[in-house]
């Protein structure tokens, strides 16, 4: 591989941080005893020494494995002894040599077995000349950036060298390119390889020096500009004082100071600097100045990097939820799970968490649950109502070029909170609407998507806002109006209707205290008996939540407050009239008796007195009938205010086989009625019914309460059972209620809203409830309080429905 000459033994010195190339003269100091002895030995042997670089500078006496393979044979030109047993030697590199072995048996000095290496010239004369010229051009370019190397004819000193290998060795030794690069040049035996390595080193050094020069120029220009700006600013300040227009300038100074104190990224501060500079140039009385001022103030008021610390006490969170809300066991469990995940992910540096959407009927405590979560976490709470929002700009803001432009509700919510990680409640998200101004739901996609909201861009702010630290909670009454892509970005937690027992406890533990405090009433003044409270729930309210119940309690408190005030004023009037009586002792005694009577005469609201305060009951719970009837079946329905029972009635009369559907049925319910009739006709043979019955008779299916719209497939088995009862004249058990979708072949399919439906059945004193078999898993999740007293039968075909429902089969 190499042009080698015969092997020879020679004293050697291991160098640290110094590489000696052939054809160069250099001096260095040595103080290691072995190296000193090697120099002394070399002086007796033609003054030749082998110089090799050690791989590890920390090694005091490196062996063969710790030395590079190729070193330099040098001639010692001068030896000077210095104080401290240090020797300075001047050497001249002669040839490259390959290190074959080291004499490990010589303890005095390093003795190396080497082979001298001659350069391999693998290029022709023309190529060598071209490479030589190119190398000289690179060196001249390098010298233009380094005066120490380029000046004083340093480069010209080597122009007489016409051999490329020697030229690279001589010039490479005098350039500060690092010991590692010099070792690469030393190990490059082939001329072409040595040229390529040296060219790469020079090109890289030139690029580094160019960038360094540009940076130095920019820094100098910046310093000069700062000095110039300072002088101009002082002159402008004097001019504005002379013109009496110094207000805007002082405002700009205040903005600048606020910007310097602002905890925000550099991108925000750069934008502010630009806007403040523009504000300075505007006339203080112009409309543009007002727009610019409002924009700068908005940016400064946003909490860019300011965050509040989260509370990590999960037990406290559970205590807050239990304190503020009765029941809702499953909802609380899921919320505590989400909070635990949120706190754990925050500890690991990943603060992302799913967006929670609380779905349930009105008045079930969705908004107050969000407020309790904010309190439990120690976060700022901001409520953003989305009901009726139909303009995309309400979410993303208006561009500031418009008159009266302002940021969107999300940015405004952050500004209101004062921290970058509040809890934002997006209330009534299902009430958002769209029009020609844009799709509001699509704007919410960016807000609620954790992959996109890290750089949410408000049109007014114009600077990306990081919404990742924000905890979003949405509320909705239904998910049917929410687009699927948006729904996919949220974790749904269903907040179901309250049972009568839950409403009683909520009223007793929360609503009474709240309304007493609001109306200035104490428990000494007013007391509502437990039975009266239960009667208010059953006879005066019909809802899934407790809002109407709270209004009724408020109504009682108002009437009681009037009565209490009337008594107090009557007592004061009597006291003032007795002051004119000559019998002072009698006056005082009478006054004391009446005041004591007024203080202790608490108003007690019993069931009998309810009508005095709330008038007659508005609702009567339809109970199960005592007699079994033909063609009348009780079904179970879900409504926005909870569950309800519906009596489906079927009449068969002479006609032409037509079907009449009344009771404000929706399209889906009408289809279920036709499917139920088709099923009954298909099984007519089992009950020995003639075809003429369906051809010469009309069927009228009616659902009472015709003013209330009804829809959905869950009344399918109810209508099928009623139809079969009407045509067979077999009565249906009055203590049975049912729900489920029916197919043409009589299969019973699963439905939703089971909790509310079972609750309605229980309130109506129904004993047996027929439920689709596939809903068995849902029944397990319902509280035992609701299921208690109900005989729930699971059915998967109409034959089973008829077996339980018909009185005679």
Report on this model:
With 809 residues, the protein is α/β, with parallel strands linked by helices. The protein contains 28 helices and 24 strands. A seven-stranded mixed beta sheet has the order 18-19-17-16-20-23-24. The protein has a five-stranded mixed β-barrel with strand order 1-3-4-5-6. Strand 16 (632-639) and strand 17 (642-654) form a beta hairpin. The longest helix is centred in the N-terminal third of the chain and has 53 residues, at 191-243.
Number of helix segments? 28
Shape label:
elongated
Radius of gyration: 47 Å
Low-confidence regions: 584-588, 590-599
Query: Pairing-aware structural class of the strands and helices?
Result: alpha/beta
Main sheet: strand order: 18-19-17-16-20-23-24
Question: Strand content of the residues, in percent?
Answer: 15-25%
Question: Which percent bin holds the helix content?
Answer: 40-55%
Termini gap? 106 Å
Overall pLDDT level = 85
Strand segment tally: 24
| Major β-sheet annotation | 7 strands, mixed
Write the SSE topology.
Blueprint: E1 3-15, E2 25-30, H1 33-43, E3 48-53, E4 70-82, E5 86-102, E6 111-118, H2 125-145, H3 147-150, H4 164-173, H5 179-187, H6 191-243, H7 247-261, H8 266-281, H9 287-301, H10 314-324, H11 329-347, E7 355-359, H12 366-377, E8 381-385, H13 393-396, H14 409-417, E9 423-427, H15 440-448, E10 456-457, E11 464-465, E12 471-476, H16 484-487, E13 490-494, H17 500-518, E14 526-528, H18 530-540, H19 547-578, H20 584-600, E15 603-605, H21 610-614, E16 632-639, E17 642-654, E18 659-662, H22 667-682, H23 692-695, E19 697-702, H24 716-728, E20 736-738, E21 741-742, E22 748-749, H25 754-763, E23 768-772, H26 776-780, H27 784-787, E24 791-795, H28 798-805
Parallel strand pairs: 1-3, 7-12, 7-13, 8-9, 9-12, 14-15, 16-20, 18-19, 20-23, 23-24
Antiparallel strand pairs: 1-6, 2-5, 3-4, 4-5, 5-6, 10-11, 16-17, 17-19, 21-22
Helix pairs in contact: 2-6, 4-6, 5-6, 7-8, 8-9, 10-11, 10-12, 17-18, 17-19, 19-20, 22-24
